[in-house]
Each structure stands twice: as structure tokens, then as C-alpha cells.
């Protein structure tokens, strides 16, 4: 069993930066792929970024070049640095953990709200 706890969400203005954190615990967490997804009202959950246990990163097209995902703490802490935020980045952000980068059956955190005012 894996537990994920996100923090760092809030209300910011367009152009600001924000860093989200995800604390992971449970068996084998350090060997899992970790990722961030987001869901805006009325929209489907969207892939944001992921990082493998080897450090390989992937990003969604809408955040490429603005967001950065890292992990530390032996792989149990995952961060999402979000720069140049836009109103369309407003969503609930979820941390995810899975055995593969495909995230076909991930564990999910409870989510943290990010609101960007224009």
C-alpha cells in the first residue's frame, strides 16, 4: 500500500510561481514512477509530468518548458515547480505513483487546489 500526501497549492496571480510537494510512503515507493496530474472543473484528468525511479522526466505539452518535476528524499519526495503560471493552469493537482510510467493503475493522493487569477 502506498500513501501520497500533496501540499503547496494556493491562489496566485498569472505569471507567478508555485511549488507543489508530494510525500510518499509505503512499500517500494522509491522504485515507483511518480507523477502529477490535474483536473479542472468539467474536464478530464490530464497528465502534467512524471519522473521515473531513474530520474527520467516527461511533461505534458501544455506545461513543457514552464514546469519542472524532481524527486528527493530517497525518492519519497516529489516536487512540481510551476513557473509562469496561467489561468488555464487552474485545477486540482494530484500526485500519483505507479510501477510504470504508463500510470495505468496508480495510487492517488487527495489532491491540492491551484488557482491562478488573471
Number of helices: 0
C-alpha Rg (nearest Å):
13 Å
Mean pLDDT: 95
Which percent bin holds the helix content? under 10%
Strand content: over 45%
Quaternary organisation of the protein chains: single chain
Tell me about the biggest sheet?
7 strands, mixed
Q: Which word captures the global form?
A: globular
Order of helices and strands: EEEEEEEEEEE
Which stretches are low in confidence, meaning pLDDT under 50 for 5 or more residues running? none
Structural class, from secondary structure content? mainly beta
End-to-end C-alpha gap: 40 Å
Number of strands: 11
Structure description:
- The model has no long low-confidence stretch (mean pLDDT 95).
- The strands form two sheets. Strands 2, 4, 5, 6, 9, 10 and 11 form a seven-stranded mixed sheet that branches. A four-stranded antiparallel sheet has the order 1-3-8-7, with no helix packed on it.
- It is an all-beta fold.
- The chain is built from no helices and eleven strands.
- The radius of gyration is 13 Å and the shape is globular.
List keywords for this structure.
mainly beta, seven-stranded mixed sheet
Amino acid at each position: 500500500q502506498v500513501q501520497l500526501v500533496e501540499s503547496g497549492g494556493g491562489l496566485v496571480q498569472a505569471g507567478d510561481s508555485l511549488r507543489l510537494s508530494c510525500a510518499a510512503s509505503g512499500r517500494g515507493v522509491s522504485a515507483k514512477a511518480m507523477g502529477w496530474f490535474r483536473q479542472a472543473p468539467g474536464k478530464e484528468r490530464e497528465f502534467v509530468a512524471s519522473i521515473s525511479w531513474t530520474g527520467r522526466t516527461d511533461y505534458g505539452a501544455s506545461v513543457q518548458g514552464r514546469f519542472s518535476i524532481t524527486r528527493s528524499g530517497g525518492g519519497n519526495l516529489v516536487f512540481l515547480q510551476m513557473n509562469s503560471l496561467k489561468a488555464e493552469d487552474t485545477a486540482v493537482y494530484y500526485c500519483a505513483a505507479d510501477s510504470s510510467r504508463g500510470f495505468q493503475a496508480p495510487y492517488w493522493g487527495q489532491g491540492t487546489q491551484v488557482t491562478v487569477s488573471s
